[in-house]
Write a structure and sequence with these properties.
Length: 413
């Protein structure tokens, strides 16, 4: 992979692109919209167009002078090997269903190829992808929040296949993928806002629109009632806003968090009981009850119990078959991309997955001394999302296009 200094220092104006490069950019734009837009979640035509965009992008990439497909870096070679091994093992164990079941995963990884390709030219070429998605994300947030005000469970119903889910997506309701993608969105766009404020552009229409978008995103995450997403959002916002280049200030921040943890440990039940009347009629009411019982019994119950049981199941399968994995996905917990990969394919494939998914955000973190709070926060969210959740194809867009392009923009500001 090219050095980060080369990746983040070159700029290529869109108007100077050739016709084939513009077609490739259009393919990326459609894919980025497709993986995040509720309106495009259903429909054979939309999916065919997405597949066509991927194939056309790959075809045009073959004719590039420094094609990432024909002249791969060592990083891409590792990705090739991982795909070949896991697809082969999965097919031998579960047949063609192992391939179709992982379509979202493969699409997520496809964004890595896009990133690697434009890293050899300029990530600035992909700025239109990010700018368009900031606008569209705001639209989807508005439509999602509007429905959530009437039906607080709507974002959860979307992940179920069926007519109800189809109707909700046509109303613009985003589900699991959309809600968790907002965690990256909030931090990345907030970094843009902070930079624009430093530049004296607080009252500019663009800055005000971004602030509105961030506030709306936070409201959507809170209203969607994904408790894990809420906790990750709170922690990431706290870290991003209070991280400092000063070691002393960071020590104070972490010490404050530790004291807060101690306080919660002793007073959490009282706090939860105080909050419970305000959560009546929402999904949080059940989670608060589950948490109170869990603390009192010293074990997880309710929805948390099911999630933890799935993590433990995958972990135990990995311990029983650490080298080869169990191959078949049938008995795996199916709730953590990382744990499930270790359980199904063994330690080597699991480590390769971590290398593939974390290499880019880690290298971006290592490059330079600016924007460390953004880089560390996104690295934390990347690790958390792939560890605590199933795969989502929109993660590819957020990890390897949206965040790196915004970071590139900040480095040039």
């Amino acid at each position: 992979m090219n050095s980060m200094s080369h990746i983040l220092e070159r700029e290529t104006p869109i108007r100077s692109l050739g016709i084939l490069d513009k077609i490739k950019l259009i393919c990326v734009i459609y894919l980025s919209v497709w993986v995040t837009s509720p309106f495009l979640a259903y429909g054979t035509g939309y999916r065919i167009l997405a597949l066509g965009s991927m194939l056309l992008w790959i075809f045009l990439e073959l004719f590039e002078k420094r094609s990432i497909i024909l002249r791969p870096t060592s990083y891409i070679l590792v990705l090739y090997f991982f795909l070949l091994y896991t697809m082969s093992v999965g097919y031998l164990a579960d047949g063609i269903s192992s391939i179709t079941r992982n379509i979202q995963f493969y699409i997520m990884l496809f964004f890595i190829f896009i990133y690697a390709s434009y890293s050899r030219k300029s990530l600035a070429i992909l700025r239109p992808v990010v700018y368009l998605n900031i606008v569209l994300f705001t639209v989807w947030m508005w439509t999602t929040y509007s429905v959530l005000l009437e039906n607080s469970h709507a974002a959860r119903y979307v992940i179920r296949s069926g007519e109800e889910a189809r109707v909700l997506t046509q109303k613009g309701v985003g589900g699991f993928t959309f809600i968790y993608s907002l965690l990256i969105y909030i931090i990345a766009v907030l970094a843009l806002v902070k930079r624009r404020i430093k530049e004296g552009k607080l009252l500019s229409p663009i800055t005000l629109f971004m602030i509105f978008s961030i506030v709306l995103a936070i409201l959507v995450v809170l209203k969607a009632e994904y408790s894990t997403a809420v906790l990750l959002m709170v922690f990431s916002l706290f870290f991003f806003l209070f991280y400092s280049d000063s070691i002393q200030k960071n020590i104070i921040m972490f010490f404050s968090m530790f004291l807060l943890f101690i306080a919660l440990k002793y007073y959490l039940i009282d706090i939860l009981r105080m909050l419970q009347p305000y959560a009546e009629g929402t999904n949080y009411s059940h989670k608060i009850s589950d948490t109170i019982i869990s603390i009192q019994q010293g074990a997880a119950t309710g929805t948390a119990e099911d999630r933890i049981e799935r993590y433990i199941r995958s972990f135990h399968l990995f311990l029983d078959h650490p080298l080869s994995g169990v191959w078949s996905i049938e008995n795996i917990g199916k709730h953590s991309l990382v744990l499930d990969t270790f359980a199904q394919f063994g330690i080597f494939a699991g480590l390769l997955l971590l290398y593939i998914l974390l290499s880019i955000p880690y290298r971006l973190y290592r490059y330079g001394t600016r924007n460390k709070n953004l880089k560390l926060t996104i690295l934390f969210l990347t690790i958390a999302l792939i560890s605590l959740n199933n795969v989502a194809m929109a993660y590819g867009l957020m990890f390897y296009i949206f965040y790196p392009v915004i970071l590139e923009r900040l480095e040039h500001a």
